[in-house]
Write a structure and sequence with these properties.
636 residues; alpha+beta; six-stranded parallel sheet; six-stranded antiparallel sheet; 20% helix
Amino acid sequence: MSNTGISGRRCLVMLPLLEGQFRAALQGNDRDELQICVESGDKAVQTEQGAHMVYLHAGDNPFDTVTAAVKAVERHLKTFHTRDRKKLPSFLDWFGWCTWDAFYTDVTADGVKHGLQSLSKGGAPPRFLIIDDGWQQIASDNKPDPNVAVQEGAQFASRLTGIKENTKFQTKPDGGLKRLVSETKDVHGVKQVYVWHAMAGYWGGVTPSAGTAMERYEPALAYPVQSPGVTGNQPDIVMDSLSVLGLGLVHPRRARDFYGELHAYLASCGVDGVKVDVQNIIETLGAGHGGRVALTRAYHRALEASVARSFPDNGCISCMCHNTDMLYSARQTAVVRASDDFYPRDPASHTVHVASVAYNTVFLGEFMQPDWDMFHSLHPAAEYHGAARAIGGCPIYVSDKPGNHNFELLRKLVLPDGSVLRAQLPGRPTRDCLFSDPARDGASLLKIWNLNKCGGVVGVFNCQGAGWCRVTTRTRVHDAAPGMLTGTVRADDVDAIARVAGAGDDGDGEWDGEAVVYAHRARELVWLPRGAALPVTLGPLQYEVFHVCPLRAAAPGVAFAPVGLLDMFNAGGAVEECAVDEKAVVALRVRGCGRFGAYCSREPARCLLDSAEGEFGYDADTGLVTVDLPVPAVTD
């Protein structure tokens, strides 16, 4: 996207494309020029021209312009679908737990059960589970190499030797993965179980040794070749390892068999989906396979066909897959990891993580629902991460070690039934943040907006102090004391607020721009006239969440606006419907329980909860109406 500023100025979106066996990318040079780099990834696949390598689209609204540009590319390429045409897996609306940062590759069946039990006992029952790296049958075909790095237990030189679970998950004669999955659902109330695997099987692919279970997939060693642009920016320890030791690559013509048999086995064990990691490795292996575009498309089509057969809820999370080879090949995959990992032990990573997921979502959110990754609920940056996830429209899940939880925080995210108040869209930076640098410029706050059914939400984050260092090739703290920053929040920071601000139930009525704003941390309700701004001041690693509630006419001279569950990060996500009749009766349909709030310019005459008289409080100074909603009765 070009630097066009905000309102009243034109936006220009430039999207590099795929053409035949070639991929285009945009890059700068020493003369401050924009270049188009066209590559196949295979020296045998060459061309002297590219007829349709970049698409340009102009418009007034930056978000609408990006959407229109991607849809135009969809029509041109006919190789992928946009997010709005894909089935979103149901796990997105439930709270989850991932085993990765809790155990890394030391995960066991008992560890999984202890983690689920620990969270449920505290009132935050996980309803989806990801069994991450550590469950598969792997072995190293090479002697240990002192030049090969290992990170967080990931064994980059190891390869897959079978499609079933390893001995850690086979502790009893009648045990195994099937029994574990059954127990997580029957005993612990988990609704969806996903397991991790790499695009090539494991980090090092599959074993190419003759006489093994993998032989039928015709694997052969392949050696990654990275582009100069990638290596010049960030050396990758996975690629560096595999460029020496090689990756066992299933032959593209056998990819459908490989994924099909792996996923069929998992489905027979009750598994509902897969988290498919290390997808970027395929783009480096195009030599001898017709180039990177052809190879990526072959693998991704095989993957999607297998997911469709084995996991009817479209159970797939794509990770490490930001190349356009993959995005422009995804007809079905609906969830994509939006950034690097959550790193619990790296203080420099947390502000950068939140900024990265928001800006990456501007593009990625057109193709899939971005996943902003897991986090720890018991961590110095836990509230910061939790607030971001709540407004990101993304899945909400933690990777807590058993017994290490902050349930006060989790209650701001998780309802008693294990569901979450997920916002409706991918969370993106507000217009006035699109061309600022909230991590490094020392002046800007990051604002992220999203929609709920009857209002909007804006999260404000102080992300200053850390960023990518080209010298050390890692994220590092560049300002240990970035200080306090002040910005403003407006109702129209929620870019699509007009969609939910109409006076009628169909949302087609006129809205005069007036709203009330509820600040989550400050616990303040403020009336905002049309065009007015609310100041916000935040210190390092601080945040605030503002719930933007368009005012509705409840009667002549009386205005009303629902806020939501005041103690939840995404309070407005609890409001399912709001209707006002000609007798000035406001009817609300609300999810969840706890302290519910709404604005009314005049004290209500009475309050009914499911037709029964209910008590309520009213603050005449602010117009805040509060009602305590009981925990819903459990029904079959």
